[in-house]
């Protein structure tokens, strides 16, 4: 029985790793897609310091593009809390911590662009690694 349990845990670990690889590939594709559109293209230097560039309209357009395409925000700019929870859950398994992060970080701001930037900043500050694929 222990052997079966260990085997199933191994399969679950491999499946979880494959899911993360697929998500990372999707994130790279989304980033490239947003970069290929002149309306959402942003210099990579701006991406490396979101906090210092939070008011840059091009950075806002890019982050909203990525956030919308990954499903964190709807087309109208509103946050999709269920998707945010599921994406955070890929790197954090403690559901209470996921809920706390969503409560703290998934906050609508004055504009959809500022909402996107602040969501990424907050989650990054809290150590959520899923979004590092962007």
Structure description:
The longest helix has 35 residues, at 2-36. It is globular and about 40 Å long. It has helices at residues 2-36, 44-47, 57-70, 81-88, 95-105, 112-125. It has six helices and no strands. It has one domain: Pheromone/general odorant binding protein domain (Recoverin, domain 1, Orthogonal Bundle), CATH 1.10.238. With 134 residues, it is mainly α. InterPro entries: PBP/GOBP, PBP_GOBP_sf. Keywords: Signal.
User: What number of structural domains do the residues give?
Assistant: 1
Shape: globular
Determine the structural class based on helices, strands and strand pairing: mainly alpha
State the helix count.
Answer: 6
Write down the overall mean pLDDT: 85
Sheet with the most strands, sense and barrel status: none
CATH homologous superfamily designation: Pheromone/general odorant binding protein domain
In short:
GO terms for molecular function: odorant binding. The protein contains 6 helices and no strands.
Features:
mainly alpha, Recoverin, domain 1, signal, odorant binding, PBP_GOBP_sf, PBP/GOBP
Could you give the topology of this structure?
Blueprint: H1 2-36, H2 44-47, H3 57-70, H4 81-88, H5 95-105, H6 112-125
Helix pairs in contact: 1-3, 3-6, 4-5
């Amino acid at each position: 029985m222990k052997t079966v349990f260990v085997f199933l845990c191994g399969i679950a670990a491999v499946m979880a790793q494959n899911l993360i690889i697929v998500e990372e590939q999707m994130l790279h594709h989304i980033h490239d897609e947003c970069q290929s559109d002149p309306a959402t293209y942003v210099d990579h230097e701006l991406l490396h310091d979101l906090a210092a560039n939070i008011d840059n309209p091009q950075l806002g357009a890019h982050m909203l593009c990525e956030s919308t395409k990954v499903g964190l925000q709807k087309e109208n700019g509103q946050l999709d809390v269920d998707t945010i929870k599921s994406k955070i859950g890929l790197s954090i398994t403690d559901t209470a911590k996921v809920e706390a992060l969503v409560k703290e970080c998934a906050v609508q701001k004055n504009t959809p662009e500022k909402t996107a930037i602040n969501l990424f900043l907050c989650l990054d500050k809290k150590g959520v690694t899923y979004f590092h694929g962007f």
